[in-house]
């Protein structure tokens, strides 16, 4: 049995503070039967693996569950379907949207299942009655014409606006590469005309052939003084770089909205739009769903379908119209010959 024994030293953070408190060195979740203590250990371990986004999700979900529970600690014995069902109802009464509720539940379930795997508690299926899926999202993609509007828009050379425009296009060109992976992209990840990266969210390896439009953007920001491809981050320390990234991410999205208006794009731009647009246009071009999933670094094709489900019927109707036109045209030709 693997036991986690760790000392926590957590300072108050801007996001409301950590749910993890300092624990005595000799204590472990196995000894105390503490679910929240084990969760704090998982948060710390996940950060050590540099999976900061996942760790943030775990911490936010745990903080929310503790707020509902009203105590500083939750034991494994208390984590059952009654507690989780009541917690879900509490979130709904607070007006938490369905997808946020699902994110909290998925995070808590992931931590709970890790504890089960390590033999710290028995599997009681406490999350069996709550929503842990992903609801239909509003369409985030833009049109082909909008991509060309962004390419053509006049921005000041050397400005942050130009960097934002170029990186948005690079994300699109690179098969919908997530902004976080672009921000952390290093020169060592580009070799022999190929770009290779591990998705920080899923750890899936994605390989992309560099096209001339991608290389042109990379060349524009070439610098001998940095290991990074693009000038978003400066620190080589992972934790410090992640804090830099979070600040730049917010500024990036804010600037994207201004850029979209400047270019005359009707839909508001965000870092996710480039990714959804590539998936949508690839799907409309009849690229196989499994290929799209591989390019996006998805571990499950179901996730990919969420990206393109809003256009599924339109593509189906277009395909049917094309098929009928071909069939009816052939029939007319046969009748004319007779």
Number of domains: 2
Q: Span between N and C termini?
A: 81 Å
**What best-fitting shape do the alpha-carbon axes yield?**
globular
> How many β-strand stretches?
3
Could you list the spans in which at least 5 consecutive residues all have pLDDT below 50? 1-16
Strand order of the largest sheet: 1-2-3
Q: What do we call the CATH homologous superfamily of the largest domain?
A: Intergrase catalytic core
What does this structure look like?
It is a single chain. The protein is mainly α and 338 residues long. The chain folds into two domains: 135 residues, DNA polymerase, domain 1; 172 residues, hpI Integrase, Chain A (Orthogonal Bundle). Helix content is 56%, strand content 4%. A three-stranded antiparallel beta sheet has the order 1-2-3. A hairpin with a 6-residue loop joins strand 2 and strand 3. Helix 2 runs antiparallel to helix 3, helix 7 crosses helix 10 and helix 7 packs parallel to helix 11. The chain starts with 28 loop residues before the first helix and ends with a helix.
Topology:
Blueprint: H1 29-32, H2 35-48, H3 52-69, H4 81-93, H5 98-117, H6 144-152, H7 160-173, H8 179-183, E1 190-191, E2 194-198, E3 205-209, H9 212-220, H10 238-263, H11 271-284, H12 289-296, H13 301-308, H14 312-337
Antiparallel strand pairs: 1-2, 2-3
